[in-house]
Amino acid sequence: MAREKTDVTPLPRPANAPRRKIFIRGLVLEANIGAYDHEHGATQPIRIDFEAEVIEPADPAGDRLEDVVCYNKLTQGIKAILAEGHIRLLETLAERIADLAIAHPMVLSVSVRIEKPKAIAEAQAAGVEIFRSKI
Predict the structure, then answer these.
(1) Is 128 among the domain residues?
(2) Average pLDDT over residues 62-66
(3) 4 occurs within a structural domain
(4) Could you tell me if residue 8 is inside a domain?
């Protein structure tokens, strides 16, 4: 499955270049997800928390969107993954989101947490959290 390529090419930076974190918290989307029969053919809410460690641009105060990892583009990428069709496991979705982010040349590592608030009646949520790194 094809993912959107980024036009961003980070400027050469030393290994100890300054880093920052970007994040998306509490992104609630409807998803066709689940392994059980009753989860097929209907959407259910999921909550996504995402955090990425990124290399700062050469001019950290340059105020240019094209010099940073855009969390709006990541959100649109997540929506595109969900639009591809039914996914059985949260783990699969988490991996796809991590792959989307880690493909960006400025992203060094990513943490993805996905919760299904209606998965277990007696619990606030059930879910998975993964961490992936280029380094």
Answers:
(1) yes
(2) 77
(3) no
(4) no
Length, in residues, of the chain: 135
Position 135 pLDDT exceeds 80: no
* The pLDDT of residue 7: 53
Contact 78, 29 (CB under 8 A): yes
Q: What range does the domain containing 123 cover?
A: 19-59+75-133
Measured from the Cβ of residue 81, the count of other Cβ atoms closer than 10 Å reads 19
DSSP string, 51-106: EEEEEPPSSTTS--GGGS--HHHHHHHHHHHHHT--BS-HHHHHHHHHHHHHTSTT
CA distance 84 to 78: 10
Specify the CATH number for the domain of residue 86: 3.30.1130.10
Contacts of residue 97, defined as CB under 8 A and 6 or more positions apart, other chains included, come to 48, 50, 77, 78, 81, 110, 112, 114
Helices 71-83/90-102 angle, 10° precision: 140
Domain count for the chain, please give it.
Answer: 1
Place of tokens 């993964």: 130
